Amino acid sequence: MPYIVGEDLPTAPAGERFRALLERGRILQMPGAHLGLAALLAKRQGFEALYISGAAMSATMGLPDLGMITIEDVCFHIRQVVRAAMLPVLVDGDTGYGEALNVMHMVRCFEEAGAAAVHLEDQLLPKKCGHLNDKKLAPAGEMAAKIAAARKARRHLYIIARTDAVASEGMDAAIDRAKRYLEAGADAIFPEALTSREMFVEFARRLPGVKLLANMTEFGRTPFFTAAEFEQMGYAMVIWPVSHLRVAAKAWESLYAEIRAEGGTHKSLSRMQTRAELYETIGYHDYEALDHSLIRTVLPEAMAQQP
Protein backbone atom coordinates (compact mmCIF):
# COMPACT_ATOMS: atom_id res chain seq x y z
CA MET A 1 0.00 0.00 0.00
CA PRO A 2 1.13 3.63 -0.46
CA TYR A 3 3.29 5.07 2.32
CA ILE A 4 0.68 7.81 2.87
CA VAL A 5 -1.74 5.29 4.43
CA GLY A 6 -0.98 5.76 8.11
CA GLU A 7 -2.18 2.38 9.30
CA ASP A 8 0.39 0.64 7.07
CA LEU A 9 3.41 2.54 8.46
CA PRO A 10 5.79 0.88 10.95
CA THR A 11 4.98 1.74 14.55
CA ALA A 12 8.29 0.88 16.25
CA PRO A 13 11.14 3.41 15.95
CA ALA A 14 13.55 2.63 13.12
CA GLY A 15 16.50 2.08 15.43
CA GLU A 16 14.58 -0.52 17.42
CA ARG A 17 13.64 -2.36 14.23
CA PHE A 18 17.30 -2.32 13.19
CA ARG A 19 18.37 -3.80 16.53
CA ALA A 20 15.75 -6.50 16.24
CA LEU A 21 17.14 -7.57 12.87
CA LEU A 22 20.63 -7.85 14.37
CA GLU A 23 19.42 -9.87 17.33
CA ARG A 24 18.16 -12.69 15.11
CA GLY A 25 21.68 -14.08 15.01
CA ARG A 26 22.28 -14.13 11.25
CA ILE A 27 24.17 -11.60 9.18
CA LEU A 28 22.21 -8.53 8.12
CA GLN A 29 22.72 -7.81 4.42
CA MET A 30 22.37 -4.17 3.36
CA PRO A 31 22.79 -3.18 -0.28
CA GLY A 32 23.37 0.45 -1.13
CA ALA A 33 20.16 2.25 -2.06
CA HIS A 34 20.42 6.03 -1.83
CA LEU A 35 17.39 6.81 -4.06
CA GLY A 36 13.73 5.95 -3.56
CA LEU A 37 13.49 3.84 -6.71
CA ALA A 38 16.60 1.86 -5.78
CA ALA A 39 15.12 1.26 -2.33
CA LEU A 40 11.92 -0.15 -3.83
CA LEU A 41 13.83 -2.45 -6.16
CA ALA A 42 16.02 -3.73 -3.31
CA LYS A 43 12.98 -4.35 -1.13
CA ARG A 44 11.34 -6.36 -3.92
CA GLN A 45 14.34 -8.71 -3.78
CA GLY A 46 13.70 -9.39 -0.11
CA PHE A 47 16.28 -7.17 1.62
CA GLU A 48 15.20 -6.14 5.11
CA ALA A 49 17.48 -3.13 5.61
CA LEU A 50 19.31 -0.71 3.32
CA TYR A 51 22.47 1.40 3.29
CA ILE A 52 22.94 5.01 2.18
CA SER A 53 26.51 5.72 1.11
CA GLY A 54 28.15 9.12 1.28
CA ALA A 55 30.14 8.25 -1.83
CA ALA A 56 26.94 7.36 -3.71
CA MET A 57 25.19 10.56 -2.66
CA SER A 58 28.22 12.68 -3.53
CA ALA A 59 28.69 11.05 -6.93
CA THR A 60 24.99 11.45 -7.75
CA MET A 61 25.43 15.17 -7.08
CA GLY A 62 28.51 15.24 -9.32
CA LEU A 63 30.89 15.67 -6.38
CA PRO A 64 33.84 13.67 -5.01
CA ASP A 65 33.55 11.83 -1.71
CA LEU A 66 35.59 14.35 0.27
CA GLY A 67 33.08 15.37 2.93
CA MET A 68 31.59 18.15 0.80
CA ILE A 69 27.90 17.32 1.14
CA THR A 70 25.78 18.69 3.99
CA ILE A 71 23.51 17.20 6.64
CA GLU A 72 20.48 18.45 4.73
CA ASP A 73 21.74 16.84 1.51
CA VAL A 74 21.89 13.53 3.34
CA CYS A 75 18.47 13.99 4.97
CA PHE A 76 16.95 14.51 1.52
CA HIS A 77 18.16 11.02 0.58
CA ILE A 78 17.16 9.49 3.93
CA ARG A 79 13.62 10.79 3.66
CA GLN A 80 13.03 9.44 0.17
CA VAL A 81 14.53 6.02 0.88
CA VAL A 82 12.63 5.57 4.15
CA ARG A 83 9.41 6.83 2.58
CA ALA A 84 9.74 4.51 -0.41
CA ALA A 85 10.75 1.26 1.27
CA MET A 86 9.75 1.72 4.93
CA LEU A 87 12.79 -0.37 5.90
CA PRO A 88 15.46 0.35 8.51
CA VAL A 89 18.27 2.37 6.90
CA LEU A 90 21.94 2.63 7.93
CA VAL A 91 23.39 6.00 6.91
CA ASP A 92 26.97 7.08 6.27
CA GLY A 93 27.60 9.96 8.68
CA ASP A 94 31.16 10.61 7.47
CA THR A 95 33.05 12.45 10.26
CA GLY A 96 29.90 13.88 11.84
CA TYR A 97 29.99 17.23 9.99
CA GLY A 98 32.09 18.91 12.65
CA GLU A 99 32.77 18.45 16.33
CA ALA A 100 30.64 17.15 19.19
CA LEU A 101 27.75 19.64 18.91
CA ASN A 102 27.62 19.15 15.14
CA VAL A 103 27.46 15.39 15.67
CA MET A 104 24.53 15.82 18.05
CA HIS A 105 22.76 17.99 15.49
CA MET A 106 23.40 15.34 12.84
CA VAL A 107 21.93 12.61 15.03
CA ARG A 108 18.77 14.60 15.68
CA CYS A 109 18.37 15.42 11.96
CA PHE A 110 18.97 11.85 10.84
CA GLU A 111 16.50 10.45 13.37
CA GLU A 112 13.87 12.97 12.39
CA ALA A 113 14.40 12.07 8.71
CA GLY A 114 13.75 8.40 9.56
CA ALA A 115 17.23 6.81 9.79
CA ALA A 116 17.70 3.67 11.86
CA ALA A 117 21.48 3.71 12.23
CA VAL A 118 24.54 5.80 11.47
CA HIS A 119 28.25 5.16 11.25
CA LEU A 120 30.86 7.78 12.13
CA GLU A 121 34.50 7.55 11.08
CA ASP A 122 37.71 8.61 12.80
CA GLN A 123 39.19 10.60 9.90
CA LEU A 124 39.95 14.29 9.69
CA LEU A 125 38.56 16.52 6.93
CA PRO A 126 38.92 16.42 4.03
CA LYS A 127 38.03 12.77 4.57
CA LYS A 128 38.62 10.12 1.92
CA CYS A 129 37.17 6.83 0.85
CA GLY A 130 38.46 4.28 3.32
CA HIS A 131 40.18 2.32 0.56
CA LEU A 132 42.40 5.20 -0.57
CA ASN A 133 45.80 6.12 0.83
CA ASP A 134 47.04 9.05 2.93
CA LYS A 135 44.04 9.19 5.22
CA LYS A 136 44.48 11.49 8.21
CA LEU A 137 43.12 10.17 11.49
CA ALA A 138 41.62 12.13 14.34
CA PRO A 139 43.03 11.49 17.81
CA ALA A 140 41.18 8.59 19.42
CA GLY A 141 39.99 10.82 22.25
CA GLU A 142 38.35 13.26 19.85
CA MET A 143 36.55 10.45 18.07
CA ALA A 144 35.43 8.97 21.38
CA ALA A 145 33.99 12.37 22.32
CA LYS A 146 31.97 12.39 19.09
CA ILE A 147 30.62 8.92 19.83
CA ALA A 148 29.66 10.00 23.35
CA ALA A 149 27.92 13.06 21.92
CA ALA A 150 26.01 10.94 19.42
CA ARG A 151 24.93 8.61 22.21
CA LYS A 152 23.69 11.54 24.27
CA ALA A 153 21.68 12.99 21.38
CA ARG A 154 20.02 9.81 20.16
CA ARG A 155 16.66 8.43 21.13
CA HIS A 156 16.84 5.16 19.20
CA LEU A 157 19.53 5.59 16.50
CA TYR A 158 21.97 2.69 16.38
CA ILE A 159 25.56 4.05 16.49
CA ILE A 160 28.40 2.35 14.64
CA ALA A 161 31.96 3.61 15.06
CA ARG A 162 34.14 3.19 11.98
CA THR A 163 37.91 3.10 12.35
CA ASP A 164 40.28 3.62 9.44
CA ALA A 165 43.30 3.01 11.64
CA VAL A 166 44.41 -0.39 10.37
CA ALA A 167 46.02 1.00 7.20
CA SER A 168 48.10 3.68 8.90
CA GLU A 169 48.47 2.64 12.55
CA GLY A 170 48.18 -1.15 12.41
CA MET A 171 45.86 -3.78 13.84
CA ASP A 172 46.75 -3.24 17.51
CA ALA A 173 45.99 0.47 17.31
CA ALA A 174 42.74 -0.17 15.48
CA ILE A 175 41.63 -2.62 18.17
CA ASP A 176 42.55 -0.14 20.90
CA ARG A 177 40.54 2.57 19.13
CA ALA A 178 37.57 0.23 18.74
CA LYS A 179 37.58 -0.51 22.46
CA ARG A 180 37.65 3.21 23.30
CA TYR A 181 34.75 3.85 20.96
CA LEU A 182 32.73 1.05 22.55
CA GLU A 183 33.44 2.49 26.01
CA ALA A 184 32.24 5.88 24.74
CA GLY A 185 28.89 4.40 23.73
CA ALA A 186 29.16 2.85 20.26
CA ASP A 187 26.81 -0.06 19.64
CA ALA A 188 29.00 -1.68 16.97
CA ILE A 189 32.34 -1.31 15.17
CA PHE A 190 33.14 -0.94 11.47
CA PRO A 191 36.79 -1.80 10.69
CA GLU A 192 37.43 -0.25 7.29
CA ALA A 193 39.73 -1.44 4.47
CA LEU A 194 40.85 -4.78 5.87
CA THR A 195 42.83 -6.54 3.17
CA SER A 196 42.65 -10.27 3.91
CA ARG A 197 40.52 -13.00 5.44
CA GLU A 198 43.09 -13.30 8.22
CA MET A 199 42.65 -9.64 9.16
CA PHE A 200 38.86 -9.94 9.30
CA VAL A 201 39.12 -13.06 11.45
CA GLU A 202 41.69 -11.48 13.80
CA PHE A 203 39.65 -8.32 14.28
CA ALA A 204 36.57 -10.35 15.22
CA ARG A 205 38.56 -12.69 17.48
CA ARG A 206 39.98 -9.76 19.45
CA LEU A 207 36.56 -8.19 20.02
CA PRO A 208 34.44 -11.13 21.14
CA GLY A 209 30.72 -10.46 21.42
CA VAL A 210 30.94 -7.12 19.58
CA LYS A 211 28.68 -6.47 16.59
CA LEU A 212 30.89 -5.85 13.55
CA LEU A 213 30.15 -4.35 10.14
CA ALA A 214 31.97 -5.44 6.97
CA ASN A 215 32.24 -3.34 3.82
CA MET A 216 32.20 -5.29 0.54
CA THR A 217 33.04 -2.56 -1.93
CA GLU A 218 34.37 -3.22 -5.40
CA PHE A 219 37.70 -1.86 -6.70
CA GLY A 220 38.99 -1.44 -3.15
CA ARG A 221 41.46 -3.15 -0.85
CA THR A 222 39.12 -5.86 0.45
CA PRO A 223 39.01 -9.16 -1.48
CA PHE A 224 35.60 -10.39 -2.56
CA PHE A 225 33.74 -12.30 0.15
CA THR A 226 30.11 -13.38 0.27
CA ALA A 227 27.73 -12.56 3.10
CA ALA A 228 27.99 -16.15 4.30
CA GLU A 229 31.79 -15.90 4.41
CA PHE A 230 31.65 -12.67 6.42
CA GLU A 231 29.22 -14.34 8.83
CA GLN A 232 31.63 -17.25 9.29
CA MET A 233 34.38 -14.73 10.07
CA GLY A 234 32.28 -13.25 12.88
CA TYR A 235 30.54 -10.27 11.27
CA ALA A 236 26.96 -9.27 12.03
CA MET A 237 26.41 -6.86 9.11
CA VAL A 238 27.65 -6.37 5.56
CA ILE A 239 27.13 -3.49 3.12
CA TRP A 240 27.59 -3.19 -0.64
CA PRO A 241 27.71 0.61 -0.60
CA VAL A 242 28.14 1.80 -4.18
CA SER A 243 27.49 -1.33 -6.27
CA HIS A 244 24.06 -0.14 -7.44
CA LEU A 245 25.46 3.21 -8.54
CA ARG A 246 28.37 1.63 -10.41
CA VAL A 247 26.01 -0.57 -12.41
CA ALA A 248 23.59 2.29 -13.10
CA ALA A 249 26.32 4.76 -14.10
CA LYS A 250 27.79 2.26 -16.55
CA ALA A 251 24.32 1.78 -18.05
CA TRP A 252 23.80 5.56 -18.33
CA GLU A 253 27.14 5.94 -20.06
CA SER A 254 26.28 3.19 -22.54
CA LEU A 255 22.87 4.71 -23.28
CA TYR A 256 24.21 8.21 -23.89
CA ALA A 257 26.91 6.84 -26.18
CA GLU A 258 24.27 4.96 -28.16
CA ILE A 259 22.01 7.99 -28.52
CA ARG A 260 24.97 10.01 -29.72
CA ALA A 261 26.06 7.35 -32.18
CA GLU A 262 22.68 6.08 -33.40
CA GLY A 263 20.48 9.12 -32.98
CA GLY A 264 18.01 7.25 -30.79
CA THR A 265 17.38 4.60 -28.14
CA HIS A 266 15.87 1.94 -30.39
CA LYS A 267 18.70 -0.53 -29.76
CA SER A 268 18.43 -0.25 -25.98
CA LEU A 269 14.80 -1.21 -25.41
CA SER A 270 15.66 -4.73 -24.24
CA ARG A 271 17.84 -3.26 -21.47
CA MET A 272 15.13 -0.89 -20.20
CA GLN A 273 12.60 -1.32 -17.45
CA THR A 274 9.23 -1.07 -19.20
CA ARG A 275 6.56 1.43 -18.25
CA ALA A 276 4.48 -1.42 -16.80
CA GLU A 277 7.42 -2.65 -14.72
CA LEU A 278 8.10 0.86 -13.44
CA TYR A 279 4.47 1.39 -12.48
CA GLU A 280 4.45 -1.93 -10.66
CA THR A 281 7.62 -1.03 -8.79
CA ILE A 282 6.40 2.37 -7.60
CA GLY A 283 2.86 1.16 -6.88
CA TYR A 284 1.32 3.55 -9.40
CA HIS A 285 -2.02 1.76 -9.55
CA ASP A 286 -2.22 1.46 -5.75
CA TYR A 287 -1.95 5.24 -5.48
CA GLU A 288 -4.46 5.64 -8.29
CA ALA A 289 -6.94 3.33 -6.56
CA LEU A 290 -6.47 5.17 -3.28
CA ASP A 291 -7.07 8.49 -5.01
CA HIS A 292 -10.29 7.19 -6.60
CA SER A 293 -11.53 5.97 -3.22
CA LEU A 294 -11.19 9.52 -1.85
CA ILE A 295 -12.69 11.46 -4.76
CA ARG A 296 -16.23 11.70 -3.38
CA THR A 297 -16.24 14.50 -0.82
CA VAL A 298 -17.79 13.53 2.50
CA LEU A 299 -19.33 16.57 4.25
CA PRO A 300 -19.75 16.79 8.02
CA GLU A 301 -23.37 16.01 8.94
CA ALA A 302 -24.16 19.56 10.05
CA MET A 303 -22.97 21.00 6.76
CA ALA A 304 -24.91 18.42 4.75
CA GLN A 305 -28.18 19.57 6.33
CA GLN A 306 -27.75 23.24 5.46
CA PRO A 307 -29.85 24.56 2.52
Shape: globular
Measured by DSSP, the beta-strand proportion falls in: 5-15%
CATH class of the largest domain: Alpha Beta
CATH superfamily of the largest domain: Phosphoenolpyruvate-binding domains
Largest sheet descriptor? 8 strands, parallel
Radius of gyration: 22 Å
**Number of beta-strand segments:** 8
N→C terminal distance: 39 Å
Structural class: alpha/beta
What features would you describe in this structure?
This protein is an alpha/beta fold and 307 residues long. The protein has two domains: 6-243, Phosphoenolpyruvate-binding domains (TIM Barrel); 250-297, no CATH class. Helix content is 47%, strand content 11%. It contains 14 helices and eight strands. Strands 1-8-7-6-5-4-3-2 form an eight-stranded parallel beta sheet. Helix 5 (100-113) links the parallel strand 3 (89-92) and strand 4. Helix 5 packs across helix 6 (140-153). The longest helix has 20 residues, at 243-262. The protein is globular and about 60 Å long.
Could you give a quick summary of the protein structure above?
This protein has 14 helices and eight strands.
Question: How would the blueprint of this fold be written?
Answer:
Elements lengths: L13 H9 L5 E4 L4 H9 L5 E3 L1 H7 L10 H15 L3 E4 L7 H14 L3 E5 L18 H14 L4 E6 L1 H5 L1 H14 L3 E4 L5 H9 L5 E5 L11 H6 L4 E4 L2 H20 L12 H8 L1 H10 L7 H4 L3
Parallel strand pairs: 1-8, 2-3, 3-4, 4-5, 5-6, 6-7, 7-8
Helix pairs in contact: 2-4, 4-5, 5-6, 6-8
Task: Quickly list its features.
307 residues; 2 domains; 14 helices; TIM Barrel; eight-stranded parallel beta sheet; alpha/beta
